[in-house]
Design brief:
The chain is built from three helices and no strands. The protein is mostly helical. The model has no long low-confidence stretch (mean pLDDT about 85).
Length: about 70
């Protein structure tokens, strides 16, 4: 069997203390913060993937209106 290396419990205990603080503290703020972070990441990806219209210069139209409209 291969040697799996050492394991330190200190990191796990630190994580446990942080999770206990969340449980004792403001869980709603934590969940809301996570949701906002996920939404911001999703919006960033959506904006990058939204196509930009390519119009001839003679039409007077400008592409990117849909992309700029994401908020």
């Amino acid at each position: 069997m291969a040697n799996m290396g050492g394991f330190s419990v200190a990191g796990m205990k630190k994580l446990q203390k942080q999770l206990n603080k969340i449980q004792a503290g403001d869980v709603d703020a934590f969940v809301e913060g996570c949701a906002k972070e996920l939404a911001a990441r999703l919006l960033s990806k959506v904006i990058k993937r939204t196509p930009v219209g390519d119009y001839p210069k003679s039409s007077g139209r400008k592409g990117g209106t849909l992309r700029r409209g994401w908020t």
